[in-house]
Amino acid sequence: MHELRAAAGLDTRGRLALWGPFGLCCGARPDFVAIATQTKRMEGFLEHILTAGPVVKAVLLLLLGASVFSWAVIAERTMRLRAARAQDQSFLATFRTREDLRDSWLLAGQLSRSPIAAVYRAAYEQMEAQGGRGASEPVLRAANRGASEQVMELERNVGVLATIASATPFVGLFGTVWGIMTAFADIGAKGSADLAVVAPGISEALITTAAGLAAAIPAVVAYNHFAHKIRIHAVGMENFAQDLLTRIEVGPARPASSGAGSYEASRR
After folding, report:
1. What are phi and psi of 133, to 5 degrees?
2. Rounded CA gap, 124 and 95, in Å?
3. Is 260 exposed, middle or buried (0-12, 13-18, 19+ CB in 10 A)?
């Protein structure tokens, strides 16, 4: 029974030593003393930030701004890539059932967030500029140009995540060094190395270190994730361009599913 209480976060009196949902489900009473202690620690943490020096505050504000911008980019790019994937699937579902390339033109104009539809529009416009003749090189160049433009659009602001991921730990390290310098300056000024003397500077150093890591870790994870997704889209657009060109050269008798097969295979 004692082990069960301990696993649930309970002390020997059946109260919650940790405010956790598992302990509440076990019917335990909350330990308001522990809650008050945690609240006091949080207030002390905020007090350390508010009483920090101007340099440390500037570092923390810079890291906060970088973190907020990073999360904004993560949210926006996540929605953008999801929309691109959904519209690609919608376009390919129509494209593979049409024998005539003209039948997909209207849908391609409506799916403004589909990279595959953009490649199709670029190639089709070039083919129409040639009077409907499917000359290979100009159409392929137009399709590749459309694919490159779409990759650049998908990569918008993603590079900022790499910058944040690489720079914020060093910004936090600067705050760490500054906090340690403050601690040594306090020792020299008061002639004592007591904990009360060095604690403010050391706390500033640790806070800036944690803030730098908190800003960098989500950014580097998101950057790697987005880079992988964008590579998938780039390979899919390249395969689609080659298959579309083959279909233009062969003519409408070629099964319409050929342009979608390689793209779906690349996604797998």
Report:
1. -90, 135
2. 13
3. buried
Helix (H/G/I), strand (E/B), else coil: 116 = helix
Q: How far is residue 140's CA from residue 146's CA, in Å, rounded to a whole number?
A: 10
Distance CA 20, CA 38 (A): 13
Residue predicted with more confidence, 170 or 3: 170
Who's near 108: CB < 8 A, 6+ residues apart? Answer: 91, 114, 117, 118, 120, 121, 124
DSSP characters for 118-149? HHHHHHHHHHHHTTS---HHHHHHHHHHHHHH
Q: How many residues comprise the chain?
A: 268
Global pTM? Answer: 0.73
Q: What is the DSSP letter of 20?
A: -
Per-residue model confidence as pLDDT tens digits over 183-226: 888 788 877 777 777 777 788 888 899 999 999 999 999 999 99
How confident is residue 67, by pLDDT bands cut at 50, 70 and 90? very high
Q: At 128, is the pLDDT very low, low, confident or very high (cuts 50, 70, 90)?
A: confident
Q: How far is CA 9 from CA 1, 2, 17, 39, 126, in A?
A: 12, 11, 6, 18, 68
Contacts of 65 (CB under 8 A, 6+ apart): none
